[in-house]
Design goal:
Layout lengths: L19 E2 L2 E2 L11 E2 L27 E8 L10 E5 L2 E6 L2 H19 L4 E5 L9 H4 L4 H9 L4 E2 L10 H9 L9 H4 L9 E2 L4 E3 L12 E8 L2 E10 L4 H4 L2 H4 L2 E3 L2 H14 L5 E5 L4 E3 L2 E3 L1 H12 L5 E5 L6 E6 L2 E6 L5 E9 L6 E10 L13 H18 L2 E4 L19 H14 L9 E5 L14 E3 H7 L5 E8 H10 L8 E4 L1 E7 L7 E8 L10 E7 H4 L13 E7 H14 L12 E3 L18
Parallel strand pairs: 4-7, 7-8, 8-9, 12-14, 14-17, 17-19, 23-29, 27-31
Antiparallel strand pairs: 1-2, 3-16, 4-20, 5-6, 10-13, 11-12, 15-16, 18-19, 20-21, 22-24, 23-26, 25-29, 25-30, 27-28
Amino acid sequence: MSTPNGFRKLVISVMIPLMVASGVSTVPELAFAQTTTPDPAQPDTYSTPLKQPEYQRTNRYDKTDIPVQLLGINDLHGGLDTTGTAYIGSHPYPNTGTVGRLAAYLDQAQHQFKRVHHSKNTFRIEAGDMVGAAPADSSLLAHESTMHALRAMKFQIGTLGNHEFDRGLPEFNRILRGKAAPASADSLVKNYPNEPTKMKIVVSNVVNRSNGKVPFGYQPYMVRTIKAHGKTAKIGFIGLEIGSLTSITPAKNTAKYKILDEAQSIAKYDRILNKQGVKAVVVMAHTAVQTRDGKTTGPVVDILHKLNRIDPKNNVGLYVAAHSHQYANAMVGKTRVVQALFSGRAYDDAQAYVSPKTGKFVDLKAHVYPVLSAKADAKVKTVAKVAAIAKDADKRVGPKVNVIIGKAASSQPITDYHSNTKTMENQIGETVVDGQLYEANKAGGVKADFAMTNNGGVRADLTPNAQGQITWGAAMAVQPFGNILQVVEMTGQQIQDALNEQYSNPAFYLQIAGLKYTYTDNPGSQQHYKVLKMYKTDGTPLSLTTKYRVAINDYIHGGGDDFFAFKNTPVVGSIGSDSDVFVQYIKDMAAANHPLTAPKPDRKLYQATGTTVTVPAPTTVATK
């Protein structure tokens, strides 16, 4: 769990074995360097709130206190019609997702709450990255189709994620407000109807450098009133952007803004709310967390621990997290933390009471539920109005998306980061860099020795159709951002430095082509591993003093994702956008009668201390 370059901080582990359930590799465990906290709650084992025992009845608080429900999502990423397996706790739910199904389950949860509590105190909230890193039916329409879906699903309050900055915050504000597209926009965008989402944005830690105010009239917090038994109470909502935004987003899109400390920002506005008599606080934060095996890890844990140190009397009862695309449900101190995966595969349903006497949350419970497919749960009917938005978007972009550009060796997906090896290699990431290296070295090309890309720039499996054909839309789902590929000159020492930088921050890692290396443990250092030897694919060792040519995107060339070794290296030439290069590679392989095959993940070789590793035989990449 980034910017026009992809999900810059898909926060996943380095060198941690994959968990296996029913023979399917799950998302690798996060390797955050933060503290952990035990999860005293029971694992989320129920598929809907209709089956959740404590949600079926009122309790003693219902007679005196005010019930409230908070339905949350995070990291939708324009996933109007995408599906995939949702891992909630240790339970896999296949084929989850789509906005039509998500809308149905949000409605079901709200109706259940209203039936049990006779209450209309429900808020639908989101924690950022609603747009960006999205399929073509959102991205080709400037994500306005996604904003239409959010409006139809009646989301009321949201915050900013890093992807809201992908095309610049002014452009996000345009689609949020439903304003007309600029004259320079593509005809698909110009012809798409504009309408405001009616969703309010709160963000407490993004301010203009010029005046210190939150941009575009967004508010740092918001207060809403709830009612029951002839009494009222108030709830405060604080929004929070990821603190590392400027390091995971191109500088041009964040230059006007200052990003403030997360915990300090929560504390500031919690105190302001407290002075206003608001003592039930919800934080919607685009910050990462994961719960696994009874432990909860991630920056959220540190943020809340810091908050409790500097504001020990804070009233944050619920923290809706995001960014890492993981499942989370735990108590961190006195705060319930939840995260509901990504792309509409799940949602969280928190139910609580607020005391009209103290104004505080009492008896707050929260669970994460999958968005089941119609096949898995035929009783829940897809919301036709919302599904129609996705269908209309598909129709509009179909002529471009459905063009066949190539062929794969099979109909099976060439898999992404969700199927990383222990060494943080994945099939499609290495296919992408193989393509970049190939295209750089075509006749008339710039010529390169190696290619490297950051993990965030590769967004999805490459999924052929049943005949093994690859469409333009499938290729664009893998590389949707259009970063500019440059060939730069680097010494062997600079290349080694870049590879070592992977091991200082587990959020970021590289996919590599034309190159292999061995690495080992680096005890006692913040850099957890270190590179021992580097080789070309033919086994030739790299010299630390020799200069080589490396194809990289302009994002990491600027030091993005903390890859500072690439910064300011001299540019030899450009080979176009990464999106176009990947499409062309697929076309070239088809023309050469080389159907795409998943590469063997043998480019990063772990060597335990005191052992010897033999470099494998060369890996062949199809050439013209």
